[in-house]
Design brief:
Length: about 375
C-alpha cells in the first residue's frame, strides 16, 4: 500500500526537502500551499508534477493554518497516514511585529490540525509530527539542551511554539495519538529564507563580491547557534514517525559557533580575509586581503559589514547548543554535513546567482537586487 503524507509548509525550506525524501521513499505526497499574488512554489517546482497527469505523486492544496474548515476538508479528502506540521510564521524577529498572527498560525494552527484529525476519527490511524524548536529553551537553563531541559521561551514565536509542543504531548496522552515533537536546532541550506542570518550573510557577501551590494548590515553577531543542514534534519523528521511508540527528540549537531564566525567562513569561501574592529554597535569588518577572483568588486580597506541596531531583538536568545544523544542512541541518527560544509554550499549557490545577475547588469539588463530586511 502506498503511504500518503500531508505536509503543511511544503513551500518552505524543510517542506521542500521533506517532500523530496518522501517521494524517493514512494509516498504519495500532499502539500498545503498558501494563495499568494505571485508564484510561491520555487523550492518545489523541480518535483512538481502536472496535475493533469494520470496519478501525480505530489499534489498541492490551497489552504492556511488559520482556516479550520479548510484544514478539515483537506484532511478528509487526503486521509493521510502521516501529517508533518511544518507550516509557520517562522521568523523570530517578525514575531515581535506580528505576535497575534504568529500565535494564531504557530500555536492555534497546530490545535486546529490535531482537532480536525480527531474530529474525523483518524486519531488512531494518522501519525503527527510537530515542528518544535530549540527556541523553546530561549534563556537557557542548562547546557547543552536536551529533551529534559526546562523551557524558557523569549519571543512571541517561541511562546506560540511552546503551546504547540504541549498540545501535541496532550493529544498523545489524552487520545493515544501517535504524535511527536522534533525539537530541532537551527538548520540551514541554500533554500533557507533570505532573511535568516546564515542566508542573509551568504547572499549578502556573494552580492558584495560581485558588486551588487556594498555592505552587510547585521544585528547581534555574538549570538551562538548550533547549525545543521536541513537535509539531515528532515531525514530525522521522517524517522520519528516510523517508530513503535511516539516520542519527542532533540535534533542538533552538538557544535556551536557565533554569527561572527559564520561571516568569517562565508567571506573566506569567497577569498576575502576580514579584520573586525570596534565594539558593540560600532563594530565593523574591513577587507584585509582578497585571494581569489571570486570577489572582483572587493578591495582591501573596504568596510563590508556594519552593525545596525534595528536588527537587535527586544529579547535575544544568546546561546543554543543541543545534545542529540537520545536520537543517536534510539534511532541511530547522526548529522552527515558539518556547518562549515553547509556554509560552503550556501556561498557557492549564492555566488552562482550573484554572478548571473552581475553578468546581466554588465550587459545593461539591470536585475534589481531585493534588499530583504530581517
Ligand atoms: P520556512 O519559513 O522556510 O517555511 C514555512 C512554511 O510555512 C512555508 O511553506 C510557508 O508558506 C508556510 N506558512 C506560513 N504561514 C502559513 C499559514 N498561515 N498557513 C499555512 N502555511 C503557512 O520554515 P522552515 O522550513 O525553515 O521551517 C519549517 C518549520 O520548522 C517551521 O514550523 C519552523 O518554525 C520550524 N523550525 C525551523 C527550524 C529551522 O532552523 N529552519 C528549527 C526549528 C523549527 P509560504 O511559502 O507561502 O510563506
Ligand atoms: P533564529 O534564526 O532566530 O535562531 O530562528 P536567525 O537566523 O533569524 O537568527 C539567528 C541569530 O542571529 C542573530 N542575528 C541576526 N538574525 C537575523 N535574522 N538577521 C540579522 O541581521 C542578524 N544579526 C544577528 C539573531 O539575533 C539570532 O540570535 C531560526 C528560525 O528558523 C526559527 O523558525 C527556528 O525555530 C530557530 O531558528 C531554531
Amino acid at each position: 500500500m502506498t503511504k500518503r503524507a500531508l505536509i503543511t509548509g511544503i513551500t518552505g525550506q524543510d517542506g521542500s526537502y521533506l517532500a523530496e525524501l518522501l517521494l524517493q521513499k514512494g509516498y504519495e505526497v500532499h502539500g498545503i500551499k498558501r494563495r499568494a499574488s505571485l508564484f510561491n512554489t520555487a523550492r518545489i517546482d523541480h518535483i512538481y508534477q502536472d496535475p493533469h497527469e494520470a496519478r501525480p505523486n505530489l499534489k498541492l492544496h490551497y489552504g492556511d493554518l488559520t482556516d479550520t474548515s479548510n484544514l478539515t476538508r483537506i484532511l478528509q479528502e487526503v486521509r493521510p497516514d502521516e501529517v508533518y506540521n511544518l507550516g509557520a510564521q517562522s521568523h523570530v524577529a517578525v514575531s515581535f511585529e506580528a505576535p497575534e498572527y504568529t500565535a494564531d498560525v504557530d500555536g492555534t494552527g497546530t490545535l486546529r490540525l490535531l482537532e480536525a484529525i480527531r474530529f474525523l476519527g483518524m486519531e488512531k490511524t494518522c501519525r503527527f509530527y510537530q515542528a518544535s524548536t530549540s527556541e523553546l529553551y530561549g534563556l537557557v537553563q542548562e547546557t547543552p539542551q536536551r529533551e529534559t531541559t526546562p523551557f524558557y521561551p523569549r519571543s512571541p514565536y517561541a511562546v506560540a511554539k511552546l503551546y504547540s509542543y504541549w498540545i501535541t504531548v496532550n493529544y498523545r496522552e489524552a487520545y493515544g495519538m501517535y504524535a511527536c515533537n522534533g525539537i530541532l536546532f537551527n538548520h540551514e541550506s541554500p533554500r533557507r529564507g533570505e532573511t535568516f542570518v546564515t542566508r542573509k550573510i551568504t547572499r549578502g557577501l556573494a552580492n558584495i563580491a560581485q558588486g551588487l551590494e556594498s555592505c552587510l548590515y547585521m544585528g547581534n553577531i555574538d549570538a551562538l547557534r548550533d547549525w545543521g543542514h536541513a537535509k539531515d534534519y528532515v531525514r530525522m523528521q521522517w524517522m520519528m514517525l516510523q517508530q513503535e511508540a511516539p516520542e519527542d527528540f532533540v535534533i542538533a549537531t552538538g557544535k556551536q559557533y557565533s554569527v561572527r564566525e559564520f561571516i568569517i567562513w562565508s567571506a573566506s569561501e569567497l577569498g576575502i580575509e576580514l579584520e573586525f574592529s570596534g565594539r558593540g554597535v560600532d563594530e565593523i569588518a574591513t577587507v584585509a586581503r582578497v585571494t581569489s577572483d571570486m570577489a572582483p568588486a572587493v578591495k582591501p580597506g573596504d568596510v563590508i559589514m556594519r552593525i545596525d541596531p534595528r536588527y537587535f531583538r527586544p529579547a535575544e536568545v544568546e546561546t543554543l547548543l543541543g545534545d542529540a544523544s537520545k536520537a543517536k542512541a534510539k534511532l541511530g541518527w547522526e548529522p552527515e554535513i558539518t556547518a562549515r560544509e553547509m556554509c560552503a554550499e550556501m556561498v557557492a549557490s549564492d555566488l552562482q546567482t550573484a554572478r548571473r545577475h552581475a553578468l546581466l547588469k554588465e550587459h545593461g539588463l539591470d536585475v534589481p537586487v531585493s534588499l530583504e530586511d530581517g
